């Protein structure tokens, strides 16, 4: 098994900055990024919420590589600095010795491309895995054309492969405003930016720029439904809401559109850090559950660093990439210092230079998320699917019912719900997942995790900060069996596979 001195996961702004900083310090760096993602995976809306608005050109992997590198010049800079850049490679697992695993000879990562999977060891690890979209479902959100802002950003910039023509954006703030600007720059008509709040949130100058370009803003509004056919969304119905997020009678307005882009919020991608059992805390001002880290971007685990959105994000980071870039540099310096590539004096001097930039003061985001959820529930009802992969509605989630496709009912199941379960202990999304299969579909909960937590907190009267996140298990990316199976498995291993399992007689005593 190959051992790497430093592995950086994620080749965005933070990841490339970390890799370059460490490489320039004399460290052998391997930079891994899952992009370009295969067309088949993107068709499943994984790992981003692409909304099935993906051009056919994505089937040409070589073309996608060229577009990706052209959109990210830092990749060439990293390669020039001696970084081993591995694109189209996902990290599907992270392993280390714990109470349940004591035989590993060092921390390891599971990797895969479109042909095979393998495992590597590392001395130091920087996780710069970015963020994903907060998704709250609505009537019609299962139609092609419903997408997240991060998915839209990837299609518009990294891949240049969006087929959207007329877009409605849910949520202002810098995420929504920046998405609107990018969409217009790529020839997409932004017909509406919708927000449940009475005023537009986000950068004032960017809002005025969009208004001057003719973009309509609908404040104190929400989405009632998206209407369409098998080809996808064709129109949306907006409705005004009062201060209690209740629909205002007679305020419905239908707008022709083929895309609804959710720009309500972003969530740190903490999967790998969770698998490694890093200390993780709930911080609403940073997007929810985030890894604990110090000013040098060191986590609670020795040799593991974080940078960028995965370390916690806020609205100011959307328009200022220097924040993520500086975090990446700090992580790279920390890794280089811990490996002995630079001494502590040089590391302190370089950190002092980076910290000179003033930090933004983020605000809590879950008030915004709850307002959106309340408005969408009030106008769309509880029969809207909370988990589209497993066909679990909001009502079925609250009643802890199994997926409707199982078509199985019993008196015992009918008598249970979230409130009865709370009598036996705190609300637990993992237990809810086992009962309902919510979050167990092909997207692996990326489109429903936060909505589930918000619904469970509201129904049980629990502070959202006390609702744990659904646990993660490898593989954290849905991979075909043809990739996961060990092609190099020997005949001896095949013949003696039973020895890897405890005999049933021992289990039963």
Description:
The chain is an alpha/beta fold and 509 residues long. The chain contains 20 helices and 21 strands. The strands form six sheets. Strands 1, 2, 3, 4, 5, 6 and 19 form a seven-stranded mixed beta sheet that branches. A five-stranded parallel beta sheet has the order 8-15-9-10-11. Helix 5 (149-158) runs parallel beside helix 6 (173-185) and helix 10 packs antiparallel against helix 11 (344-354). The radius of gyration is 23 Å and the shape is globular. The two termini are 37 Å apart. 48% of the residues are buried. Mean pLDDT is 92; it is low at 502-509.
> What is the radius of gyration?
23 Å
Class based on secondary structure composition and strand pairing: alpha/beta
Total DSSP E strands = 21
Task: Report the major sheet.
Answer: 7 strands, mixed
Distance between the termini: 37 Å
Could you estimate the helical fraction of the residues in percent? Answer: 25-40%
Strand percent estimate = 15-25%
Shape: globular
Mean pLDDT: 92
Number of helices: 20
Poorly predicted runs of 5 or more residues = 502-509
